[in-house]
Amino acid sequence: MGHGGGGAMSAELVEHIFLPAFGGRTAAALGDSAALSVGGARLAFSTDSFVVRPLFFPGGSIGDLAVNGTVNDLAMSGARAAYLSCGFILEEGVETALLGRVAQALGEAARAAGAEVVTGDTKVVESGHGDGVYINTSGIGLIPPGVDIRPQRAAPGDVVIVSGEIGLHGVAIMSVREGLEFGVEVRSDCAALGGLVEAMLAVTPDLHVLRDPTRGGLAASLNEIASAAGVGVLIQERAVPVPEQVANACAILGLDPMYVANEGKLVAFVPREHAEAVLAAMRAHPLGARAAVIGECVPDHPGMVVARTAFGGTRVVDLPLGEQLPRIC
Amino acid sequence: MGHGGGGAMSAELVEHIFLPAFGGRTAAALGDSAALSVGGARLAFSTDSFVVRPLFFPGGSIGDLAVNGTVNDLAMSGARAAYLSCGFILEEGVETALLGRVAQALGEAARAAGAEVVTGDTKVVESGHGDGVYINTSGIGLIPPGVDIRPQRAAPGDVVIVSGEIGLHGVAIMSVREGLEFGVEVRSDCAALGGLVEAMLAVTPDLHVLRDPTRGGLAASLNEIASAAGVGVLIQERAVPVPEQVANACAILGLDPMYVANEGKLVAFVPREHAEAVLAAMRAHPLGARAAVIGECVPDHPGMVVARTAFGGTRVVDLPLGEQLPRIC
Fold first, then answer.
1. Cβ proximity of B29 and A78 under 8 Å
2. What positions does the domain PurM-like N-terminal occupy (chains A, B) (predicted)?
3. Domain residues for B119?
4. Of B116, B142, B168, which residue sits at a domain end?
5. Residues A255, A204 share a domain
6. Better-predicted residue by pLDDT, B37 or A270
7. How many folded domains does chain B comprise?
8. Which among A23, A43, A87 has CB closest to B136?
9. Is residue B20 in some structural domain?
10. Do the interacting molecules here have an ipTM over 0.90?
């Protein structure tokens, strides 16, 4: 299960099995999406499969996730999603009414994100060989001129900004799946981030890195960036916005919010001279209202993420091995 | 299971569930791929999930299928596949050595087709909730200027050409899965058709329709074209190239070769004035050596496919309800 968790074990699979087999360009495409040149246009292209359980959860469904996950991967290279594909793998016997609700949610999420579902495929496997509904979406978006956003561009001096409170998606899934209650219902933050990224790009096309911290949480994203760019990342633990119900749930379950998945948040590495204006633009957008500076990119400890704790000490924030909770997306 | 078979039940699912949910553009994209305009370029975009059992079979594997299936969908709009995405859904416990062999086959098939795998994703589901390896691929290709190939363009007078012998993939899967033997080993015809289509387009950009008869076989493809264009299709049954081992297997199993899946064949609707030259170009290509004219597009019986039998009678070739054999791709 760890190999699907977006952490060190996933990276190992990619490095030792997929890259040698696929070769060449794949190696350059370790960001959330690949940047391509096709017929003179600069495109972002991304794919994601969704196997979340349960199919519906507070704040969303597999249909919402399938759209927002791919839309957000494209947004992380500065592209606004234009076209989506959609492949269903259905388990024999799944109710057509349930499938209809999933398709409806998917269609609505696509319309909300301004993307069109233009091609699709359906396969059916025997009862007991699937799990209701799996969905793959792939997406194509246009990268605006002058925009070059990728993990390798993180540079010492960059300000690290997170777009809002972390950990909501993971805790929402966990609470509904395990039947846990934490006082108030925790709702997934599942959302499409294309509009927020556009607002940030309106300030400057020179954003260095964007990443949506899904599987493996903020810790996995920061580690991937530090490692890709060969820079250090220093986080002020107190500055990371953790909602009370996420903090409570994590305390009870022995989890670290830094490792819990999000589905409607991004982390940005922004050149210092633009940081204040970008932060203001984010806060003016509904999906960035709680945006906060959480740290900076440093020349020290390249490849490592270090957090300054509330007590003044420091700790290393490791790349997680797997995901704390399987099948959250 | 029938809803995944590419026949009437699949069409029903698309018409009653997916189209109403996704709306707009999806409706126009009922070909094998969608034709899009992005940043001034004309792109074909297609997706397919692969759930074939067994993962390896005579003549190919799920890795080959995953590449060739999507490459061929793009080729059916005249596009040469440029970029592929690849999403794996793995079952917990699948051997990494097996996964490595699948990835290797996929990589080799992509290189053979001249396409690059540029982005990917891996999810893992618990043991008993998947089936070893499922793969989704999506692909992007550039449509050459002046090319407009789609089912709606079939017109009375068009000559119907098939690129070679039919039924090999379906019979190969069936024989290995069911442990049947038909004298000689039947190998899948799984192949990438981009090069063959380029050779045809070199004769004329004005090909009307191309289709790869996978699930539901030649019968399903011809019915979809007849229905999309509102034309009749008249086939000379004797002209359809059916290899002896496919004919034998079908006779034993009570199947009709017209309904058996192919993975390396195409059917073309070509304006009469170009038919001879296109056929010659096909025969000069290794994947079209056994190409044959099998019939014509007629103004009679719109939406219907009729076959003239070897005995001089005629019979209606219906759209199959589902697939004769589940999970062949």
1. no
2. 32-143
3. 35-142
4. B142
5. yes
6. A270
7. 2
8. A87
9. no
10. yes
